[in-house]
Amino acid sequence: MQVLDKKTGKLSVIFDVEAIRWLTENEAEVEGGYLCGSLCMAAGNYRVIRDGTHWLVTAYSVRMR
Question: pTM for this one?
Answer without folding.
Answer: 0.74
